Amino acid sequence: MSSSAPPVSENRPSRNPFAGPGEQGRQLWRAAGEVVLAGALVLLTYQGESWIEARLTGGAPALAFVGVVLVLVRRRFPVAGVLGLAALMGVVPTVALLTAVAAYTAARQLETPRRRAGLLLGAAASAMAVCAVSAPHLELGSWLFGLALSAVLAVTTVVVPGLVGIAAGQQDRLLRALRERTAAAEEAQRLADSESRVRERSRIAAEMHDLVGHRLSLVSLHAGGLEMALLKKAPGLCDEAAVVGRAARDAMQELREVLGVLGPLARDTGTDALTDATGTRADIEALVEESRGVGIPVEFCWEGQDLDARPARVRRAVHRVVRESLTNVHRYATGAHVTVVVRHIDERVEVRVRNGVPPVPPAAATGLGSGRGLPGLRERVALLGGGLEAHRTPGGGFAVTAGLPADPGPGAETAEAAPYDDGPAAVDEPGSGLSAVQRRLAGVVTGLLGLAGVGVMMLFGVLLVARSRYDLAYQSPEKPRVGMTKEQVQRAVASDDNVARAAAAGREPPRPGSATECLYPYTDRSEGGRLEIVRYCFRSDTLIAIDRFTVPIVTEKATEPPHGSRKHD
Q1: How far, CA to CA in Å, does 411 sit from each of 146, 189, 417?
Q2: Sign of CA dihedral 436, 440, 441, 443
Q3: CA–CA separation, 516 and 138 (whole Å)
Q4: Which helix (H) or strand (E) segment is 149 a member of?
Q5: Dihedral sign, CA of 59, 65, 69, 71?
Q6: CB of 567 closer than 8 Å to CB of 510
Q7: 377 and 312 in contact (C-beta within 8 Å)?
Q8: Which of 55, 109, 137, 454, by CA, is between 20 and 30 Å from 145?
Q9: Residue 121 and residue 106: Cα distance in Å, rounded?
Q10: pTM over 0.70
Q11: How far apart are CA 329 and CA 319, in angstroms?
């Protein structure tokens, strides 16, 4: 029972004869260990029940080998393994503990209650039928004795381990279901939290659009009107009014970009709403052409395949990096030579925007920038599992370099949920505080203790049956008497026993002169250190004498002359 595999689904059979459904690998080391353990169990059981296997002469080792093979393939063929070992146990009880291992594994592995019950009942019935039929042929006793012996073996090695396996399998399936339900509940909670955040951010975006957007539009309108009024009355103040109008329009533009970030990813509310072309080669070329149109020399290079097949969040990040970098060039390095390089190789995307020293020093800072452009880009790229660097070059220019995976996979969160979501918590496996080796060792020790308990129960039951062996198996309504036929006598007494015949040799009273053969039934009756033997002598097919005598129970080589008593009935 110790080496059974964790239960898995019955619907995915494995091709490996030593592995159960769903198990990976060849499992050769485990099979080798089970061969050694199975051989040790067979030898151990043989020591306690050798009086049964002794009647099989040379067939017992071959049948035991078949039992070892069946226990090795029990995971791949659980039904065949249990039924085969149960039937084999009816002839060779030394494979009883192997039957217990197979019954535990099969009951734990099978998930259908009807199949489990049918398998255990079928295995018990198979063992009892085979033992009842083979007992008279092996001269163990009558079929009734074989039925009693097999009933003890079936209960202790099939039913009890099977019930333990059923309980263990139900516990494993319950734990697996609890883990799945916990993971599903955490995933549902995560989705609910994400949806709540999206709704809240959408509400904030709507509030900002309605309130701040309205105020900025009023400022822009009043600035335009003031500019037109000053154009006639105070031309010197017209430029100041124009600055206010531009500031209002820039603020409105930045507000729209912020609203685009706050809004849901699928429906960007900013001016640069996400489309199928966002972040592709054509999109980046369009950004470059816009910069060239305002007099900025831009050199563009694209290496690798296009990004049209990549996720939307990757294309958005590439677009934002290039656009923000070119916008910074427009503001702070007008006229500087710019190099834009996008490299898409294997599963990696790299973006590099580098500008030189502008021909004309930039004007004084206007204070219109938000200061969140590059930090926002850095956060966006980091959420996708990449990194962004922005620094001055040794020649006085500026460089922005970003690298991110082309397919972040399901583990990378979107920009809306990632800063707040830690993902579902991992569910601890049973005994996660122990190492795999410790868990396996604990399972082996537990299994060996269980096998020891099964072995004790089995041997105790076999001894009880053996003690009442002939009282149970050879009770007859008619006692043997002179004149009965040999067949009638054999039905009333035990079969001829070589041990009793050998004990009587040289110590028995003389046989009747007309006797053609004698029968020495098995006996275990003793008194005062002497064994009681009954001899039935026949002439042809008729009982002519019943002799009862005693012989000493010899534990060492006898040195005294044989003696005994004789009594003819």
Answers
A1: 64, 17, 12
A2: positive
A3: 25
A4: helix 143-154
A5: positive
A6: no
A7: no
A8: 454
A9: 13
A10: no
A11: 16
DSSP per residue over 296-330, as a string? --EEEEEEES-STTS-HHHHHHHHHHHHHHHHHHH
90 closest CA partner among 29, 158, 181: 158
Q: Please give the span between the terminal C-alpha atoms of the chain, in angstroms, as a whole number.
A: 55
CA dist 296 and 331 (Å) reads 11
How many helices (DSSP H) and strands (DSSP E) are in the chain? 15, 9
Side-chain-facing half-sphere of 565: CA atoms under 13 Å: 7
* Cβ–Cβ < 8 Å for 60, 73: no
3-state secondary structure of 227: helix
DSSP 409-443: -TTSPPTTTTTT---PPPPPPTTTTS-HHHHHHHH
Question: Are 329 and 291 spatial neighbours (Cβ–Cβ below 8 Å)?
Answer: yes
DSSP tag of 494: P
Residue whose structure tokens are 């002794």? 54
State how far Cα 319 lies from the chain centre. 43
Task: Please list the pLDDT of the chain residue by residue as tens digits (569 residues).
Answer: 544 444 444 445 556 665 666 565 556 666 666 666 666 666 656 555 554 555 555 566 677 677 777 877 777 888 888 888 888 887 777 777 888 888 888 888 888 888 888 888 988 888 888 888 887 777 666 778 778 888 888 888 888 888 888 888 888 889 989 999 998 999 898 888 878 887 787 777 766 766 676 677 677 777 777 877 777 777 777 777 788 877 877 777 777 767 666 655 444 444 445 566 788 999 999 989 988 887 889 999 999 999 988 888 888 889 989 988 888 888 788 788 999 999 998 889 999 999 998 887 765 444 444 455 677 788 888 888 899 999 899 888 999 999 999 888 655 544 443 443 444 444 444 444 456 677 778 777 887 787 777 777 777 777 777 666 555 444 455 788 899 998 888 877 877 888 888 889 888 999 998 999 999 988 878 887 888 999 999 998 899 999 999 998 865 554 444 444 444 44
Contacts of 93 (CB under 8 A, 6+ apart): 45, 49, 52, 53, 149, 153, 462
Tokens of 140: 């163990």
Residues 6+ apart with CB under 8 A from 70: 80, 81, 84, 85, 88, 98, 102
- Give yes or no for a contact between 399 and 353, defined as CB atoms under 8 angstroms apart: yes
